[in-house]
Amino acid sequence: MADREAIAAEIRPAIASLDLGLYDVEITGTGRARVMRVLIDRDGGVDLDAITRATEAIMPVLDASSIDDALAGSYTLEVSSPGLERPLRRPEHFRGAVGSTASIKLRAGDVPARRIRGAVVVADDAGCDVLLDTGETEHVTYDDIVQARTVFEWTGQPKTGKPNSGKPNSGKKEVARS
Known about the structure:
With about 180 residues, the chain is an alpha+beta fold. It has helices spanning about 5-15, 50-65, 65-70, 90-95; strands at about 20-30, 35-40, 75-80, 100-110, 110-125, 125-130, 135-140, 145-150, 175. The strands form 2 sheets. The protein has a 5-stranded antiparallel β-sheet with strand order 7-6-5-4-8. A 4-stranded mixed β-sheet has the order 1-2-3-9.
């Protein structure tokens, strides 16, 4: 399947024309179960109208692009918000998460993977500093990160009435492509 960065470069102008930002492109699955997930964002978040407009803008770009040939075969295009608990993959994601709590799975050489959790206090192009619950600050290089995401911390009291799953609605819109 085509490179995520090449896909991002192709669709970024269409998304920017809608005053939206491209947060990330994820490609998962194989065969008929392939999914291209495009995560969009803007200050104040995105709603279903923005997701619909972005989907409508992305599809013709992919159809006209040589990247579509590299995608050969069917795949599902999903356009969504990165959500409250957003993945952190690139330095700009970590810079955007400064002040937020993150859960980070680390690996270093032959040492078994471990997970840390704390507030991202500073981030640059090489790594970030995380203020742990113990009060200590740990420097993490991006090369040692296996997986990272922000953590939504619920501070309010639950409302009475209809229970919900506790997961926010991502506003995901799926379009099957073949």
